[in-house]
Amino acid sequence: MKIAVLGGDGFVGWPTALHLSDAGHDIHILDNLSRRWIDTELGVQSLTPMDSIQERTRIWHAETGRRIHFKLIDLARDYELLKNWLAEHRPDAIVHFAEQRAAPYSMKSDRHKNYTVNNNVNATHNLLNALVELELDAHLVHLGTMGVYGYSTIGAAIPEGYLAVGIETMGGDTVSQEILYPSNPGSVYHMTKCLDQLLFQFYAKNDGLRITDLHQGIVWGTHTEQTRRHPQLINRFDYDGDYGTVLNRFLIQAAIDYPLTVHGTGGQTRAFIHIQDSVRCIELALNNPPARGNRVEIFNQMTETHRVRDLAGMIARMTGAKIAWLPNPRKEAAENELVVHNEKFLALGLNPVRLEDGLLSEIVDVAKKFAYRVDRSRVPAVSAWTKDIAPLINHDPEGKRLKSVS
Ligand code: USQ
């Protein structure tokens, strides 16, 4: 297939582009390189040394003989460029990662909230709009988030996108319907993914677009089969307080002898998936498109759930790291249960990589190898969800003003 990978320079986009190229597809990356600009804005860099996208694709070609094409486009702003590109190339499928994906970054200031909404919602809408205008029947696979469901504990498992409800009619009967699971975002970033869901629902219904939405959990790990092939194909690895996600942050913190930064009681339960499974799921989704006229296909792209404090405890036992119990910069439930249906990918043959498979220590090794590149002052998460929370944030989890390290 000819596949456009929008946001193909990012943390999941890059290994996906390699994985799909390796599988024989003709890959075209469209990206505005915003993630690299945000690194510059925040004054941080990936733990792993990353080459330019042009250099990365050159190395891939030298290693495999396969070409990955790159086009610099800002999907949120350059509608005409996007439309012209789609008209010229007419891809069979499109994988859409081209959104600002960090919840803390989306909550940093009013400017960051505006940027995240404008960027994410416009990028998605521009794409859908162009597909309709060009009568292009490409299968659209979008990277959504488990966070659309929210983290309230209701004692029931989260279904894959749709909830069966009974509605009482005026005549007193009960009619059954399947509706999008009520969205309950926990950040401006997560809210944009909820808005995306409505855009997809409308365009699938109105124009018969073929859309798959992947509700992905927190990705951990860094390598995939293809990124291992050459040092310059390495994936990015974020450890800073805005872009670093919890498990990868704990692993790098353990590697540099920094206390593990647990927010609040660490009672938050979240869904996780290894980066290798993430790229496999995307391929499975591409191979199983919905029929034209069908509703949006939704998969829960996660393989296991864990409580934050259990992860911290496990890594502390594995590495001897200390745990810092910090005031939570986010407005979120202190404790929650989370049970998730993910049978659809398992039925399509996904054989998940588990935390217990020993890969955690491998990542500590990656972290140790590049530890010299870490700026310890960028480890604390200081982006506060509300003005009330901001004064409580601990900017120094290493100890001087810390109440409790165990
Ligand atoms: N947390 C800590 N300590 C840290 C960092 C995070 O205790 O040092 C806690 C947070 O308070 C939160 C949980 O860990 O309760 C998860 O935080 P995260 O930063 O790992 O994940 P999140 O902000 O939810 O976002 C990430 C990705 C996002 C994706 C989402 C999937 O950045 O793109 O959509 O995971 S999910 O969480 O399932 O919605």
UniProtKB/TrEMBL annotation:
UniProt pathway: Bacterial outer membrane biogenesis; LPS O-antigen biosynthesis
SUPFAM superfamilies: NAD(P)-binding Rossmann-fold domains
InterPro entries assigned to the protein according to its UniProt record, in alphabetical order: Epimerase_deHydtase, NAD(P)-bd_dom_sf
Segments forming domain NAD-dependent epimerase/dehydratase: 3-291
Family: Belongs to the NAD(P)-dependent epimerase/dehydratase family.
Name of the featured protein: NAD-dependent dehydratase
